[in-house]
Amino acid sequence: MENVGLGLSALDRSAKTLSGGESQRIRLAAQLGSNLRGVLYVLDEPTIGLHPRDNDALLDTLEALQSQGNTLVIVEHDEETMRRFGHYRRSRPRRGMHGGEVVSIGTLAEIKKNKISKTGRYLRKPMQHPLRGSRRSLDKVMKWLQIVKADTNNLKDVTVKFPVGRLTAITGISGSGKKHPDALGSAPGSRGSASAKK
To answer: How many CB atoms sit inside 10 A of residue 5's CB?
Structure first.
């Protein structure tokens, strides 16, 4: 569990509270202990929701699976993951009948040189944030959403407020309670309340 970024998850936590990425990583941890060989693993964005601190441990785990004689096919957008593995296939981003066109195949160096690959373009010249040059000040925010004493799963008596009408990013290591709906007092038996304040 530690190796796949789930070291903080409680063992008595209900499966329905896990994200798709967390569930996938639990299955991955089980596979590590099985010592199977010659297996094809297809993983859909295994690093999603992971803090950068946990990425290296997960990628080490994937490399360990590969070194045991298994094949890994990974759908991923994370740059570090792309840099760790050797062969890439880039498809057009449209869906349905307008998608599925392969625009580049090869090593990371070859993808970076491909003029029609958006992935290659962003690897050559990463986007700079914020795009506007500076972040907007919060001094003039009139309304805030405040969560008072959220206390569920890994959240312990947490009080926090968010600016209304702004984009707020919540970061932290996997299992630290970033996205659990109980934090808003929305689930039976949870402790904590949400209120709008001026």
So the answer is: 27
Q: What angle do CA 180, 184, 188 make, to 5 degrees?
A: 85
If the chain, 198 residues long, is cut into consecutive pieces of 10 residues, what is the mean pLDDT of each piece?
66 70 74 83 81 78 87 85 77 68 81 83 80 80 87 77 86 66 46 54
Which amino acid does the sequence have at 183?
A: A
Query: 79 — phi, psi (to 5°)?
Result: -65, -40
Give me the DSSP letters along 109-156: HHHHH-TT-HHHHHHHSPPPSSTTSSPPPSTT---EEEEEEEEETTEE
Q: Residue 68 is encoded by which pair of tokens?
A: 């045991």
Going 22 to 7 to 4 to 127, the CA torsion angle's sign is positive
Residue tagged 């295994």 (tokens):
46
Q: How far apart are CA 196 and CA 194, in angstroms?
A: 7
Please compute Rg for the chain using Cα positions: 21
In the chain, the domains with their CATH numbers are: 2-124 (3.40.50.300), 144-197 (no CATH)
pLDDT computed for residue 143 by the predictor: 92
